[in-house]
Design a protein that fits this description.
This protein is α+β, with helices and mostly antiparallel strands. It starts with a helix and ends in a 5-residue tail after the last strand.
């Protein structure tokens, strides 16, 4: 028995990152975010975004139809997140809020605050998750 077991009692359930990816709570953007795929400033660890952020990325306003696409909007989020990750790493932080322009269908020119979280995955390997602060 561990100290946590003594204080909180035995673990009754777990929800892994793999399960979150499988059920769509997280959306895997590792390939798009990877330095290997040619993404400048790319990540070298798995990257996922929350379902809420993915829906915001997909919600291209009609005014931007034809000039914006999902991949480009994801690139904007990933690039800005990579800059935030570098800043967090320099300060020894595991998370950092950052701002990106992500117009939505219902609003124009909207800057949104996002959070990048760098932490251990299911098997203690480093992973990155990006979402709205309320997603964490």
């Amino acid at each position: 028995m561990t100290i946590d077991d003594d204080f909180f009692g035995p673990l009754i359930a777990t929800y892994t990152r793999a399960q979150a990816l499988e059920d769509g709570t997280l959306v895997d953007l590792t390939e798009w975010a990877s330095a290997k795929s040619g993404f400048h400033g790319g990540f070298t660890v798995p990257v996922a975004v929350t379902r809420a952020l993915w829906e915001a990325i997909e919600a291209i306003p009609e005014a931007l139809a034809g000039i914006a696409d999902v991949r480009g909007r994801a690139h904007d989020v990933l690039w800005t997140a990579s800059l935030a990750a570098r800043g967090a790493a320099k300060r020894g932080e595991s998370s950092k809020d950052f701002v990106v322009l992500l117009p939505r269908r219902d609003e124009r020119g909207r800057k949104v605050t996002l959070r990048i979280v760098i932490g251990p995955g299911d098997h203690a390997e480093p992973v990155v998750t990006i979402g709205f602060p309320s997603d964490f």
